[in-house]
Write a structure and sequence with these properties.
Subcellular location: Cytoplasm
GO molecular function, one term: metal ion binding
Family: Belongs to the queuine tRNA-ribosyltransferase family. QTRT2 subfamily.
Strand order of the largest sheet: 5-15-14-13-12-11-8-7-6
Cofactor: Zn(2+)
Number of helices: 14
CATH superfamily of the largest domain: Queuine tRNA-ribosyltransferase-like
Protein name: Queuine tRNA-ribosyltransferase accessory subunit 2
Largest sheet: 9 strands, parallel
Strand content: 5-15%
Shape: globular
Structural class: alpha/beta
Helix content: 25-40%
Length: 483
Amino acid sequence: MGPESPSQEAPEEMTSPFSLLQPAPSVLAPRVGKFAVPGRKAIQTPHYVAITSRGSVPHLTHDVVRDHTTIGSLYFGLEDFLEKAPNEVPPIYKVPRALHESALRKFACLQDDILLVLGARRVPPIVCPPANTDNSIGILTSFGYRQLEAEQYIEAVQKLRPDVVVGLADLVLGQKPGVKRREKMVDRTHAYTRDATRQLYETEDGAESDLKKTLYFAPVLPLENTQQTLYLGDLGDELREHISGLALYESSSLSVVPEELGDLPRLSFSEPKTPQEVLRDIALGADLLTIPFIGGMSDGGIALDFVFPPKKEEHKEDQQDEPKRKALGIDLWSPSYATDLSPLVQGCECYACTKHHRAYLRHLLSAREMLAWTLLQIHNYHTMDRFFAAVRESIANGTFEESVEAFERTYESSLPQQTGQGPRLRGYQVHPSGPSEPRRNPRAYGRLDDKAEKFAEALQSSVATPDADAEELQESGFAEKEC
C-alpha cells in the first residue's frame, strides 16, 4: 500500500529521489509524493518508517516482514550497535563485505529492496546524563551511557553505508532549553551538518565522494524560525547540493521550513501519540513519520481498530446527539474476549485476522506466548498501511480536511490504556525516573514464596511438635483411637 517495486533509474540520471505527485499550495499543507531510491522500493508519501530495536522490527522476523507486511523502510539507531566502542570494535564493523555493499544491510540480513535510514539515537530516545558537547552527543548503548563523537558518526556512515543518514543534532531532551542553550544548539548543529556534508561528499581535490548514494537529511531544530535563520539559510544556499531531505523533531518545526527547502522530503520524529496527531503532522506537510505507538499498542495487547475516513454509517451516527465515540483499539486482555471467535477487527484482511480470532489472541497473551505480539504487530502495521493509503487518496481527491474532521468526531482522542502485562522491558525502553522508581518487570523468581508459607502454616497447625503442651496435643487429635 506504500512501497512499490524497486526503482531502476540510474543514480546519475536521478536529480532528486523525491518528487511531489500532488504539490501543496504552501509549505504548511498536506501533499502526496514519491520517495524513490535506485534499487529500493519506491515509497508513496505520506507514509511511516518502521522503527527497529537492535536491528529488527520488534516481534517480527525477516520472513514475517517479507510475507505478511508491506514494510518498505526501516529506521536504525546507531547506539544499538556500538556496545563497547571505541575500546572494542563493534561486531557490526567486522562484517565482511565488498566496497559497494552496505555493512548495515549485511549485518541485519535484510533484503536488498528495503530502504535503510540510520540515525544516531533510537526512536524514541532515552534522556542521557552526559551532556552534548561541541564535538559529541550523549547516547545510551547496551553497555551504558557514553559520548558519540561527530567524527565517529561520520566514520560509521562511511562503513555502514545506509540509504539515508539523519544528521547529528544538538537536542535537549526532557526539558526546555534556556536562551543561551538554544544558541549553542543552533551553532553546534550547524557545525555538525557543515563538517559531515564536507567529509561525506567532498574529497581533498574537490571531487565528489563515492558516498553520493547515501542521502543526507539535515536536522531542523525544534526552535523558532528567528533563532535558526542563519542555519536554515545556509541549508538553502551553500549546503543545498548535499542535502537530500530534512529531519524534524516537533510538529511545529514544519512551520519554519523555508520555501527554498520546500521541495525536500520531511522526515518527522515528533513521536505522535494518536492517529489524530499523525493527521496533524500530515496536514502540516510531513512526508515520512516514525510512529512509536504502533509497537507500543502491540506490546500492550491492543489491536488498532480505526479506518480513514470513517465509514458513512459511523459518521451519520456521530452527527446524532453526540453519541459515545469509538475506541481506537481493542484491548485483548479483557476477559470478555475469552470465548470470542470473531477476528480481531471485522473486515480486516491481515494474516492475524484471517487466520485467528480474539479468543486465541487472548489465550496467547495470558500464556505470555511470543506469537501473541507477533500477530498483533502484523495487524497493527496492516492497519497503518490502510490508514496511510486512505490519507494519500483523500489528499489527492481534495477531501483531506473534511475526512480529518469526521475522523476526530468519530473516534476517541486517545488510545486505549494498557491493562495487561507486556513483554519484558529493557533498559533502553524505559525513561529513568530517579531514585525509588517502581520495578519495571515483575519478579521472575520467588513467586511460590507465599504458597510455601501457607503450606508451612497448614502443616504446623495439623501436626504435633515436641514443643506442644498436653492441651495442644489433644486438640490436634494426639492418641485418639481410630474407629
